[in-house]
Structures are given as structure tokens and as C-alpha cells.
Amino acid sequence: MAFYDEMAVMALELITEFGQPVTFRDTVKGVYDPGTGKTGPDTVTERTAQGILLDFTGQEFQTNSLIKVGDKKLKIAASGLTAPPTLLSKAVIQGKTWSIIPPLKEINPAGTPLLYELQVRS
């Protein structure tokens, strides 16, 4: 196993031990049918990941004007994810739904995703 593959597994183990489950929910709008004049049902896809929800530091608030009071930092283990989160995904943590605020950062040394670092807002 390559070094970064081992690091991805280690990140997943640590975040699983000290973090919590996070459900990513993606919704694709139904297709409009001009014959019936109706829109089909939305398709919702969910996938579970392991993550750590953190507060931003005072220094981060001072240097980043896009952070609002109540925003959180969410670190997600990349290992085991079937698809990475997108800016349109919603993160559900302990029953609370969070929107992802740009930028979505991927920690990806040498082409191996280890972590996704997200700014989330409820």
C-alpha cells in the first residue's frame, strides 16, 4: 500500500474514532414533461461519511470575511466515500441540515484524497 493510501486509511480511522457520522444528501430536480405539463419527482441520493464538526478560530474570522457567526468547519475523511461532496450537497449532522459554502477544499497530496474541508452553514 502506498504512503498516501495508508494516510487516507489512518485519517478515516481517527475521524471515525473521534468524529461522528455525516450524511450527504444530493437532490436532483425532477424532469419537466411538456406532454403532461408536470414535473417528475425529485431524486434524492444519500451517502454516509465520517466527519468532525469544528468551530472556526478567532484568527480565521479575522482573515476570512466569508465566515459568518454560526458557521462551522467540517472535516470529512475521503476514504470510503463513494463520491465527494459538492457545493450543492447538504450535510446532515445529528439531525441538523447544513449547506456547504465555497470553497470546498480537497486535501489531495500526490493524487490521493485524504480529507475534504468544508465550511458549512445552517
Task: Write structural notes for this entry.
The protein is an alpha+beta fold and 122 residues long. It has a single domain (3-28, 42-121), classed as Beta Barrel (Thrombin, subunit H). 18% of the residues lie in helices and 45% in strands. The longest helix is centred in the N-terminal third of the chain and has 16 residues, at 3-18. It is globular. It comes from Pseudomonas abietaniphila. This is Prophage PssSM-02, structural protein.
Side-by-side strand order of the widest sheet: 1-4-5-8-7-6
Structural domains: how many: 1
What's the CATH topology label? Thrombin, subunit H
CATH superfamily, by name, is Bacteriophage SPP1 head-tail adaptor protein
Shape: globular
Give the overall average pLDDT: 93
Protein name: Prophage PssSM-02, structural protein
Organism: Pseudomonas abietaniphila
